[in-house]
Amino acid sequence: MISVVLPTYNRATTLPRAVNSVLRQSFPDWELIIVDDGSTDDTPQFLASIRDPRVVVYRHPENRGVTAAKNTGLDHIRGDWFTMLDSDDEMTSDALAVMIECATRTGATAITCNCTESVTGRMTGIGPTQDGRLSADEAARCRGEHWGLTKTSLLGDLRFDERLPGFESTLWLKINRVARRYYLHRALRVYHTEGADRVTVAGRQASITDKVRVFCVLGEDRAYLEALRAAYPRDYRRTMLRVWLARLLRLAAFRSEQW
């Protein structure tokens, strides 16, 4: 079975497109885990109308953010494999079948594929230009919008750090260190960019206090920092510079409060 985790927040206009793209899959053995992150529009009514027993819905009483919604979905996956789908995007009808076939054929435990941008029709992922295995370092150097499938056993107890919205690489870099990853140079997901909304409440400009907090938290994640240093040394040096600066600012603030 493949578990598809789909977090959503106030996406009643685009959610049906995403859900229907899963319902249309040629590969039948899937479960769709929808996490409604406290929507206040017509999302609950649409979800109540879904009759396919393979679709399971969880609801947060209030909006907690996309990272928390994804973690709720990860906590409930039952499949041997999992993937995530944004609630304004869609997968091609053969997406799951193609990725499972590739995993079976190559022995991969993680599959990366490309996406198509909805407006231009161009591939959104920057990196490899042909099928082949990806090392952890090569996977880390991929840029742009990619997608894929991951063996659930690689996830274990790992989850996104809800204190770090927007830093999903803290999870994926750890998985990449142990994954046998294969890249398929095919666009199996449509990445919609014509809408301005997002899964969670639109983020405000981060304050200095927010940035200090975020980089102090990043500095505590040794497994992530080790994976970052191995895969992308330049980003590691840049991140550590910000971590140390954040620690100095936090110390200065603490001493100021003491005075």
Written account of the structure:
The chain has 259 residues and is of the alpha/beta class. It has 2 domains: 2-191, Spore Coat Polysaccharide Biosynthesis Protein SpsA, Chain A, CATH 3.90.550; 208-258. Helix content is 39%, strand content 22%. The chain has 10 helices and 11 strands. Strands 1, 2, 3, 4, 5, 6, 8, 10 and 11 form a 9-stranded mixed beta sheet that branches. Strands 7-9 form a two-stranded antiparallel sheet. Helix 2 links the parallel strand 2 and strand 3. Helix 8 (208-218) packs across helix 10. The radius of gyration is 19 Å and the shape is globular. Mean pLDDT is 91; it is low at 198-204.
Brief overview, please?
The chain is α/β, with parallel strands linked by helices and 259 residues long. It has helices at residues 15-23, 43-49, 66-75, 95-106, 136-140, 152-155, 169-176, 208-218, 222-231, 233-258, and strands at residues 2-8, 30-36, 55-59, 81-84, 90-91, 110-117, 125-126, 132-134, 143-144, 146-151, 181-191. The protein folds into 2 domains: 2-191, Alpha-Beta Complex (Spore Coat Polysaccharide Biosynthesis Protein SpsA, Chain A); 208-258.
